[in-house]
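Worked example 4.2. Below are the chains of a multi-component assembly; read each line carefully before continuing.
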Amino acid sequence: MTAPSKSKKTPPKRTATGQVDGPTAEMYRDWLRQMLLIRRFEEKAGEAYSLGKVGGFCHLYIGQEAVAVGSLAALRKDDYITCSYREHGHALARGISAKRCMAELFGKAAGTSGGKGGSMHIFDASLGFLGGHGIVGGHIPLTTGMAFAAKYRNTDQVAVCYFGEAAVNNGAFHEALNMAALWKLPAIYICENNRYGMGTALERASAVYDISERARSYDMAKEAVDGQDVLTVYEAMCRAVKRAREEKAPTLLEIRTYRFMGHSMSDPIHGHYRTKDEVEEQRLRDPIRVWLEHLTAEKLLQDAEAKAMDAAAITESEEAFVFADAAPEPEPGELYTDVYAPVNGVR
Amino acid sequence: MAVITYRDALNQALREEMHHDTSVFLMGEEVAVYQGAYKVSRGLLDEFGPMRVVDTPITELGFAGLGVGAAMVGLKPVIEFMTWNFALLAIDQIVNSAAKMRYMSGGQVPMSIVFRGPGGSALQLGAQHSQSFESWYAHIPGLKVVMPATPADAKGLLKAAIRDPDPVVFIEGEMLYNTKGEVPDGEHIVPIGKADIKRAGRDVTIICHSKTVPIALKAAEQLAADDVDAEVIDLRTIRPLDVPTILASVAKTHRCVVAEEGWHFCGIGAQVVDEIQKAIFDDLDAPVLRVTGADVPMPYNKHLEKASKVDVAKIIAAVNTVCYRS
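Applying the procedure described above to all two chains together yields the following structure tokens:
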């Protein structure tokens, strides 16, 4: 993995007292805020799962926060986003409230899909956040379709797809990327390489370990970057967005990260498929720690502010839990709504 | 009223709907430059250009998914499968994406999309190219399944399917493309979910769809010569099924035969029989019989293939049995 980069393009402003400030500094601090919220939200979601308040499958994003936060920061409000089932972090980073996300995990009427989607199917069409999809690789062609729609309508929107490294061995990945390159569609395919497809290591599943190399099959632009440094992710994403928006060309962006938790809440963090030592070693490059150290070193943040941010993230997550727990269940009649479009306004 | 082929009726529907709504586009293998493997899309590339009539690589999963993604952001794709046999590669996108996107998103995400192409068997195409999959798709909540048998219904139902706000599986009859029939002039839309009584009769109801409709009508003609007056109901839409029309007919005739090209087990007829027995059991004078394709992969051999298919004689034999006339 590459070392965290220090941006030279955006030298921070300093106030008379030497404190770093300005829009860039505020954006950098906001990234820490977002990563802390995702971390604390996911911890709370895990707790809720253990208490039986969240059912089914629940895939946590802990360890990968810099990927969603750094990449989504480079997008516009009218861009399209699709994710795999490990999407709580992306939903929060896109601006969906912790309360509505948690309520969806709890299956409540106040959730993003009114409780019909669950942990794996978070949607907010008003933010271009188009799921949460449960079949590995199945959502990659959907993104190609959204990029096709942008080209069809001659807008400069960009469609972004997040998937794990296990999805690249799937036919849907190949078919979707081939068409995007063939037709020069404004799509960005983000492979969050967290090294394991459930319990199968990349090296045991893929003939080529460098995922970004696969872009060569489609004559597509590619990049592979360190996903534990949010600024590196942001800068790579800015290049990909520029390529999509201005040059109408797709990118395969491999972002190398690590899953600190098990595949889902019901899976072990380590065991037959990876050692405890490996997980401990990777935890040294916790994206939140990496970014906190950067902000501190660059005098962008004081310890007290960092502590306050974390306290706020804990509070917001707890409030989301309380809100979701107290929220009403969907009405029984909701069972049969939304299967088909409303007829004469009747759902 | 003009007399045109089933193929040209579909072509007219596509052309009219693409003029009607600029968000409608056609995508599939050989639909543009080649003018369609079955020439359904003849002339459309010249008229609408390559952004709206799009040739794809042979990649059913990919372009079906692309269509679903485009529908999620408000376009109205018509995705052509060269045949429904090849759509098996795309079924994840039809079932896991298109059919449930609205539900999973709590009603937020639109899904107006048509998947269309020929289904069923033709002549000696062998096991992998001769299959009827309507019961697979009709099983899935969230999908609508439409199967026209005549040129007029082909045009009217395809126009309705393209305007429909839900995903529609539109299965054409490969052996019907060259059949001719009258198609009403002007705007002609046939509502989804309405069966059609293709021949009125008193003595027995024959329920059929797609390619079994002309076979059933032929059987009814021969039966008429033998003093049996058969009513032929063309389902036209498999899902939602027009149960009231079925029940009204069977309550009148008291006898029923259900014919379909597909396999017997878990076929469309099984659903039709269930609707009949639970609603009007006491109106029946005989058990409802089903005439279906043989329960085998389609053989290549001409004689074996013929033996496997629904034909006039098999329908007449079933009618005679339910009429206790053997």
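Take a moment to check your reading of the output against the notes. Residues 23-50 of chain A form the longest helix (28 residues). Chain A has eleven helices and eleven strands.
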